[in-house]
Design goal:
Helices cover 44% and strands 18% of the residues. It is an alpha/beta fold. The protein folds into 2 domains: 166 residues, Response regulator (Rossmann fold); 145 residues, Rossmann fold. Strand 6, helix 6 and strand 7 form a beta-alpha-beta unit. The chain is elongated and about 65 Å long.
Amino acid sequence: MIGRREFMALLGGAAAAWPLAARAQQDGRVRRLGVFMNLNSDNPEGQARVGAFLQGLQEWGWSLGRNVRIDYRWGESDSDLLRRYAAELVGLAPDVILASGAVVTAALQRASRTVPIVFASTVDPVGFGLVASIARPGGNATGFMNFEFGLSAKWLELLKQIAPRVTRVAVLRDPDLGSGNSALAAIQAVAPSFGVELSPLGLRDIDEIERTVADFARAPNGGMIVSSAARATERRDLIIALAARHRLPAIYPYRYYVSSGGLISYGPDSTDQFRLAAGYVDRILKGEKPADLPVQAPTRYETIVNLKTAKTLGLEIPASVLARADEVIE
């Protein structure tokens, strides 16, 4: 038995929870989602992104096994694998697919121009041909973009602030992606004003990364900018280790590089994009079209600094950088 007061409290809690659940289950159907990640299933960042997406779904009243089911595919940069997994997911006839990154989204669009797609952690969706415009995507995909290319210049500015002796900078980017070349162009535009000579380095495979970074590091006063390419994310432990081995001050696009031992990062909260993506999935499940949902850009960028790594490199981070850092790892 429960008393009247306890009963009314339970009833009030149920009433508060009801609107979300009712909206999510208004027709009683179990909806089918696809999730296609551009990382391996054992990658901690990939797991964190999926966890954020599931949290977002819960916030909108969707729960696994009750009113939604999810089919997952995990793949790195193997084009044949991406093509096969895209076809498999589309073949399952999902109501919506969550896609991580531009390459995955493009593979899905080659498989279907009708299945709704919500992307996250994507650079330059217009230049990549995923949408017609930011304001009106116009096709079967929309979502959340990571960067505007002007941000790339900020990486060089921050690198020079924390390592003023740097006069040579290696830019690790994926030459197979137009976005990688656009980011490089933005850095090249401001490099003369910082008195810096740039050396573009590729990310195609581990041997290329190890060889080119070692060659670059033979001359003094070097530093490194690591782009937001998926291939860099996949090999971030190697890249961080190479920066430490060759004593190269390096700036990265995401927090998880710095928590893994990198020096400094400047970029959006990429994990939170997947939580926000759940809101677009919810809207599509309730009848809206990707073509009418504008692509959203980050509203803020965060700076993360690893003081332990700075000390190892013999660097003193300026007080001005520390004052505006969102997090300092000691």
